[in-house]
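Worked Example 4.2. Consider the chain below.
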Amino acid sequence: MTVLSQFFTGNEAEPVAVENSSGKGSVLLVCEHASQTLPARFGTLGLGSDVLQSHIAWDPGALAVSRLLSESLDATLVYQRYSRLVYDCNRPPESPSAMPVVSEIYDIPGNADLSDADRYARTSALYIPFHDRISQLVAARDQTVLVTIHSFTPVYHGKPRTVEIGILHDADTRLADAMLAHAGGSSFKVERNAPYGPEDGVTHTLRLHALPSGLLNVMIEVRNDLIQDENGQRAAADFLHGLLVAGIAAEAE
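Applying the procedure from the previous section yields the following structure tokens:
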């Protein structure tokens, strides 16, 4: 019996989803926090339904924006089908944030006192298949621009955030620089490495799949109150499409 067969029930979906796998665009979109769904074996992790619908469980609107970008860019999209509360696929296994005991102001009872076996099971069932799939897609492509899509809450620890779109990077600033150069004068308030930056540990996927082989890469954060409905999601996706196309073209010159 495998870890996966023990982890999921027979009618649960595989953890990794791939859409537009035959997309011809150079961009590979990744959405690590696409869903608030918990595998059945975890129940509610001891949390109320309101908390499980909140930003601590997923990135509201991020998958919808990713799908719109996948369509407009003809980009392959990879996303995680299960909540980051069970395993945050944008964190390495050794990170305390991978299986958080506390998220913002909320204790996560179902993540308290995890054994080594518990952590291994979650890592094997969620993290490894997700990143293996990204690695396989990158290896099979002639050219890849890695773009990860996230959303963030407008109020964090009681403090409002005025930034609307964050363009994040790690050591490789090329694509972020080019996108930010084209962001001036937009209707969105766009900032570099906001509301998070690499010092917060949020660029793990970029570090794992892009930096070692020099792939162009960027992480995008959109404030989630702006993408609550289809109109907002499309406005954000259209704006990001323009930034990505301009940024990638600038780097190709």
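Residues 116-140 form the longest helix (25 residues). The two ends are 52 Å apart (CA to CA). Compare this with Example 4.1 before moving on.
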